[in-house]
């Protein structure tokens, strides 16, 4: 009995309830504040571990861009008040290593992105490589190249698991958000065990991940986030047809 009481006390102090007021909501909602260290522990248990070249301090510095300027000095407080949301975004960040002269992802599990980053066509190839990396080998993208047809549309040619494919994008200098929707059709066609997932916090920034149905269920249960399956036509435009 004494052990049970002690556990309840620990839970109370580690996850303090907080009333969140939002003028857009009919009623105030009760949320739990979860310490940064606890969130990191839970995400690590789900497989989100920082790469050896990325320190915890570097990650916290990178997360400052997700909060208001006047809140950046105490980023852990913002993380605590927004359980798993900010920290999950951080798991998809990357940094430039001055010594190695290369870009290193914070983890190899997910991708944080903003469509405005596709300001040059080569970004589609970079993104496709990353979309393969987060599948941990289930999807392998190779031989990627871009071409432009007579109507000024861009085409992305590649191989996935050795199978030749070609996707129609948008006209030159236009962003093809349908690029992400294509991956939904691809996993359905190849009958992969995992599927791509999607999460955002209401902004134009988002996180793309990859999970099996069991992993998706466990992630949402442990974090309380409402991560969805990446769905064509819902999160991004439908792909172009010939």
TrEMBL record:
Full protein name: Lipoprotein
